[in-house]
Design brief:
Helix 8 packs antiparallel against helix 9. The protein folds into two domains: about 160 residues, Multidrug-efflux Transporter Regulator, Chain: A, Domain 2; about 120 residues, Rossmann fold (3-Layer(aba) Sandwich), CATH 3.40.50. The protein is about 50% helix and about 15% strand. It is elongated.
Amino acid sequence: MNNVKKFFSIRDLENLSGIKAHTIRIWEKRYNLLTPERTPTNIRTYSLASLQKLLNITLLYNSGHKISKIAKIPGAEIPILVQDIVAEKKAKNHSLNAFKVAMINFDQRMFLKTFDELSAVKSFREIFKEDFLPLLNELGLLWQTDAISPAHEHFITSLIKQKLIGATETLQYQQPTKTDKVFVPFLPENEIHELGLLFINYEIVLKGYKSIYLGQSMPLDTLKDVLDYFDKVCFLSYFTVSPNKDKIERYVTDFTKMVQNYESAELWILGRQTKFIEKENIPNYIKIFNSIEKITAQI
């Protein structure tokens, strides 16, 4: 089954581009920039090509080009001009739109070029916090409004994941400088939302700690194996969808039982499922954080 969304409403275009639907209609009528199709019930729909064109036009418009001038640019030249602007500007207001254009176009080269331009003036840490996080937050809203398809989301998050792993690998060639604890980042069973945990893992290694990254969907009882190898272990996890609200208290209880014979084990957790934990009942070696910033500041 092909999950790529091929037709978009004017509200989708508004959500993706940031240009109000009323303005899009004016641009259509006055400058003939887009040519919508009509459903049998006379509702406007737009092709993927129209959405791609609008995102490119939006980037040009936000870069200071007048819409009347953009309307006179031949269609085939617009993507080339966008590439040039992305290469020259290096600013995050341009990078966010460029990353969205890359996502909609499934354009890996544009993503990589935008990332390389940002890398010339920013650290990876800055890029993730100032560019990738706003993009990921916006993806959540676009997903809720059905403006992007699973294929788009997986494409862009896979590229970000690739960059995270590469940046972390570069650091891992260095010997850890801090030995007071070993971090073990993992995701619980049925949890696959890994980007946040990967960034925390990057921060752990950046700050000089040894990290044993276990990744997605780890059964709780398998974590015990790590406890026999190191004196002080800090497990760290991100509960986005799992364990769910009906199972999370049992999860905390089972973790407590698992580590009861180990004096120096900790569990740090964050994610929206943590709101279902009765915080007054948890032991002091379990800490709950409400943001990536809070947990990375504690490392």
